Amino acid sequence: MEAYYRATRAEISLDALRVNLTAFRQAIPEGMLLMASVKANAYGHGAVGIAREAEAFGVDYMGVAFLDEAIQLRQAGITKPILVLGYVPAAGLAVARDYDITIALFRYDILEAAAALPENGKQLAVHIKIDSGMGRLGMLPGLEAERFIERALTVKQLRVEGLFTHYSKADELDKAYTEQQYERFNGVVDYVRNNALPISLFHAANSATGIDTPNWGHGMLRLGIGMYGLYPSAQVNQKEIALEPVMSLKTAVAMTKTAPEHWGISYGARYVTSGQERIGTLPIGYADGFSRMLSGKAEALVRGTRVPILGTICMDQCMIALDPAEQGGVQVQADEEVVIMGRQGDEVITADDIADKLGTINYEVTCMLAARVPRVFVRNGAVQSISNPLL
Ligand SMILES: Cc1ncc(COP(=O)(O)O)c(C=O)c1O
């Protein structure tokens, strides 16, 4: 539904998304396919809105974590190939085939369940997952992977389209381990090629690979965090590709007050005023994904000025200091815009700033944004569409 009635919203810049997609398209080797990783609600940005824009841009593939995420995209009208990167239980195989959804394959029992599917003239497309050193999903390189590939190729219900692996340290400065993973995966790719097996697509790249070592990506870049304008780590070569953050988290002042001296602010009165202080109440809290663990650490932007969050972040609300923003003497008014993440004037609070305060990574910061925060898709300064699952 295209409506929302709260001040808190995530603005999603479709212009920035295009800048980032274009930057990666230009940076990767000619002919390399581009997958938009829209799992986890497009890293919190809104899966359908992001997938629609990525499809219009011309990405070649969508990537999701599990089957329900893929079905959501199909039901929203996404027609590009979709790969489920994670585990699909046997109960999902027929549904995946019906929806033309490609799945990752890495277990014999699932392979045999596919072989037992009633034939209906359609094949279930699969990409076989190789564990080259991530230690997560996939067959081990060598005989284990080779036997599995050979068996999968005999199953009439399956079309083995691809083979893929995932790097665990591609975002680190030292590329020795990634090179080792690349070589292991190459061993399996060579086996397929030397035996002329009918598998055409090999892929190994994530954002970090796309930035630092695109030639180790094989045939497709599975682009996640970089598409959202964030770097996978501080160690990748950020000068290689200029990215623009796609998400800004904004709200507005719900109430202002001048609190007396020694006035407790929020649960536990962990912050107490040391004199008369101007306080602003914001309608955003930990239930929106603004973690309570940021209490006493987070900041917000008001009138282009950084102000601290005061005291404990509540479920739906939190308080900020208004005095730093009122140095000009003009009091902040109710309903004035406040930026929690993003730019206001010359100041910016990044997902990495928030991640550092939480001891996590930017990926988790955007993924944490709750469903109840409307996603407002903006192009050229104008609202393009709104996603609000509540209404
Ligand atoms: C299998 C796989 N491929 C690609 C990606 C995209 O990675 P990134 O967001 O670092 O580009 C992920 C993300 O976790 C993943 O799990």
From TrEMBL:
Transmembrane segments: none annotated. Substrate binds at residues 136, 315. Residues 246-378 form the Alanine racemase C-terminal domain. SMART domains: Ala_racemase_C. Catalyzes the interconversion of L-alanine and D-alanine. May also act on other amino acids. Belongs to the alanine racemase family. This is Alanine racemase.
